[in-house]
Amino acid sequence: MRLPALSGGSRPPAGTPRLSDETASDLIQRVAQHDRAAFRALYALTAPKLAGVLTRMLKDRSEVEDAMQEVYVRIWQRAGQFSADRGSAMGWLVAVARNLALDRLRARPPQGARLAGEDPLALIPDPAVGVEARLAAAGQARRILGCLDEQEPDRAEALRGAYLVGLSYQDLAERHGIPLNTMRTWLRRGLQRLRECLER
Amino acid sequence: MSPADPPDDADDLLAAEYVLGVLDARARRDAARRAEVDGAFAARVRDWEARLSPLNAAYPEVALPDLLLRIEARLFPARPRRRWVWAAGGVLAAGLALAVVLWPQPVPQARLVAGELVVSVRLQAGLLDLRRSGPSAGEDRDYQLWAIGADGVPRSLGLLRGESLTVPTDLQPGVTLAISLEPLGGAPGALPTGPVLASAVLGPG
What we know:
The complex is a heterodimer of chains A (200) and B (205).
Chain A: H1 21-32, H2 36-58, H3 61-78, H4 89-107, H5 112-117, H6 127-135, H7 139-149, H8 153-165, H9 169-176, H10 180-199
Chain B: H1 9-20, H2 25-37, H3 39-52, H4 68-75, H5 79-88, H6 90-102, E1 109-114, E2 117-124, E3 127-133, E4 141-148, E5 154-160, E6 164-168, E7 176-183, E8 196-201
Antiparallel strand pairs in B: 1-2, 2-3, 3-6, 4-5, 4-7, 7-8
């Protein structure tokens, strides 16, 4: 299987080879056997993408570099937990990076002041159109985008913002100017609808 | 949630919220621990990861400085350099070996991080020095520290109750340290029973 698009809006750094999910899966399984050459290859092939995940979520450059090191330490340590028949290899790697970024974001002090000063969603260039154009190739991707389109635009944007930049319920409630519990109920309904739509 | 929803819908929504990333620090930590011990919940988490993963394509690729050497230094401390020194041979080797001995040795250390819980470990003069910040284990729980050597078998280093702990040890850099959440008094047997919250390799400083 070929990944639909490893790159996002910005061009991949020159010379970054394309990576098939089968290759990534094979490399992770060799890393689980403590194969250091496989680890180096996996780093070379996946670092730009995982750096993209961490940059979008953590923003601060020095924290991104520190987090990158921790992500690959985790990948080395947890490679044995990856199972190729349970999902895509790239998906597993991105999940490791997202989980680490989310742990760090939640450990930060409350961010009301920061959110007032900048708009995290502004860092996603044109979320609706941009994401769609990049994903147009993959059937599965079309489905989730179709399902997001069935939601009210506000709710679809909140779901994207939460997933891509790591906004919490608290952040979202502040952005939308509604109480935390209202936000929680509103977004949960969105998640239920998303699941129903994807299972249709 | 309507009455027609299956009774385990709350679990599925929690898994969705966890993967989406909207939970606060405490709820997130609880969900992560649950995913480590509850297979059904872990499967729901994987399902949501798969459902939302097409959005990953929206992450751009970003060029960073090459961090591989720093990562490898954390994972595989020290040994290759010494081997190289011995292989060099002759007077040069003796000189280099002396330099290695006289060069200030970095203090092996590790950081175990699980959300707000951070345990910093330093190995100095045969003593393992641990400092904890973040939440305590809770009323009927204890944090337990483990060392996992080359044989893959965890050995208990003791309970971490206060904010700091010093234990004499013969551990060497390169050993993996792990913290698990155990019942009060620690794991009843020789192996961890609770979720492993964090692990890290004891590496050069």
